[in-house]
Specification:
By secondary structure, this protein is α+β, with helices and mostly antiparallel strands. The chain is built from 4 helices and 8 strands. The protein has an 8-stranded antiparallel β-sheet. A hairpin with a 2-residue loop joins strand 7 and strand 8.
Amino acid sequence: MRASRPAPGAMLLAVLVMAAPAQAMPSTFSQVVGNALLCRSQLDNRYFHDYLTTSFGPAYKREGGAYWFRVEATLWGAEVKQVVVSDDSSELVFIGALTDSAPEALEGAVRAASGAAFRAADASPYPLRVSNTGSTIAYMNDKSKIYCAKFKSQPVR
């Protein structure tokens, strides 16, 4: 009995899939994710989950009420390494991004690129920075995270 061999085309496809580089940042990333992080668009966790899955592949973990996506992207000139999107276990809907920039640097970059102004929430050494639209920049060790979080809307009765 002869052993069957995969067709040459199938072998080539398998090699290409295994060697495929990470997906590049989509051209719409700054508009879609950036505006959401600045609380300038409607937050719909299902939409953002689907967008990130399509753009970067499936979430690498689900933890803390969120899906976590590894990304290779930039927003306002800052490197973005991860994006989190709320799952349905929280009373909040949110999207957040973890950057390699210090909060002061991220705040300056966002202001320069979008005009969004942030103010320190208190006088502590590591204050949250909040915009008029509700976007927040927070310390994440020596890096920063930026997020927008809102309460889920209740169905009309």
